[in-house]
Amino acid sequence: MRKIAIGGIAAVLLAAAVGAVYLTFFHSWADKSKPIVFVPKTVDGRIDFWQVLGQGVYLAAKEFGEEVQTVGAIAESDIEGQIALLEKAIAERPKAIVLAASDYNLTVPIATKIRDAGIPLITVDSGLNGGISRSFIATDNYKAGRQAGEAMANLATRDEPIAVVSFMKGSKTAMERESGVRDRMKEAGMSAVDETTYYSESSVEKAYEIVKELLLDKPDLRGLVCLNEMTTVGAARAVKELGFDGRLKMVGFDSSTEEIAYLEEGVIQAIVVQKPFNMGYLAIRAAVDVTRGRKVEPLIDTGSELITKENMYTKENQKLLFPFDAQ
């Protein structure tokens, strides 16, 4: 049975803080108090990225005097669950919908339905084929992928075997990051990059199993590029457990507490850090602007930074790594 979590942003933050799974339900809203509905890829409270993005959503909602209801599937891989939640949201006709699409193509029909229903649609973090939304707020993921590829090119020699571990096969975010990584490593003349892409389905456990098997089957592997938080954490666990830290170089994405610890330990050599707080805040601001008849930019790049053990302690990078402390 599919698990679906639905509730307000305050409940999401509470669930995130205690690692809980919560269940509630849609309710009908009076016209004058219709909320903005925020649909992330997942409401799994263990994932730091969505906790931080949710903080940005919460602050913007408070600042602009808007109610935000958050609805989301527990698993990022539950694309059907996300679509079902969007169908229910359309029926309730919220003020606007802010969506982090779980799939670049499969969520297009429901997004088109949102638009045709006259409900303003803003996309955040992950976009949709065809650019259906009024505004898309995200990292330039191709550029971020190139940052990761550049980092690996500086860490490994041209003929050392490298593998890429992605997360969701149909995610635009994943596709763009992988393209950036591979293009930059190819430009750098790296000739031993595994052409196979491995997918963790945004599961720490699956990433761990994939990388453990890879290291046992290919002990000469000398580099791993992992394309999101859960994949990086799972891969780092396998690398450390099998004793490959020190001889295998790792580049990851995002900045969870575990990733920062692995960076300090030297298990991970570099992470590409996004700005999820900014994403959440700007997505709600865009939704508010649209509902109030203001012009919005069709694309907002929130940026990314490459963090290493050598530069992680600078003031600016500490703000990126510990956004809760900076607010």
Question: What does this protein look like?
Answer:
The chain is an alpha/beta fold and 327 residues long. It has 2 domains: 4-139 and 275-296, Rossmann fold (3-Layer(aba) Sandwich), CATH 3.40.50.2300; 141-273, Rossmann fold (3-Layer(aba) Sandwich), CATH 3.40.50. The chain has 12 helices and 13 strands. The chain has a 7-stranded mixed β-sheet with strand order 1-3-2-4-5-6-12, sandwiched between helices. Strands 8-7-9-10-11-13 form a 6-stranded mixed β-sheet, with helices on both faces. Helix 2 packs parallel to helix 10.
Salient structural properties:
44% helix; alpha/beta; 2 domains; 7-stranded mixed β-sheet; 327 residues; elongated; 12 helices; Rossmann fold; disordered N terminus; 6-stranded mixed β-sheet
Rg over C-alpha atoms, rounded to the nearest angstrom:
20 Å
**Percent in helix:** 40-55%
Tell me the domain tally: 2
Give the overall form: elongated
Q: Determine the N-to-C terminus distance.
A: 39 Å
Q: Report on the biggest sheet.
A: 7 strands, mixed
> In percent terms, what proportion of residues is strand?
15-25%
Order of helices and strands: EHEHEHEHEEHEHEHEHEHEHEEHH
CATH architecture type of the largest domain:
3-Layer(aba) Sandwich
Strand order across the biggest sheet? 1-3-2-4-5-6-12
What is the count of DSSP helices, taking H or I runs of 4+ residues? 12
Might you state the CATH topology name of the largest domain?
Rossmann fold
Q: How confident overall, as mean pLDDT?
A: 89
CATH superfamily of the largest domain: Response regulator
Briefly note the structural class of the backbone: alpha/beta
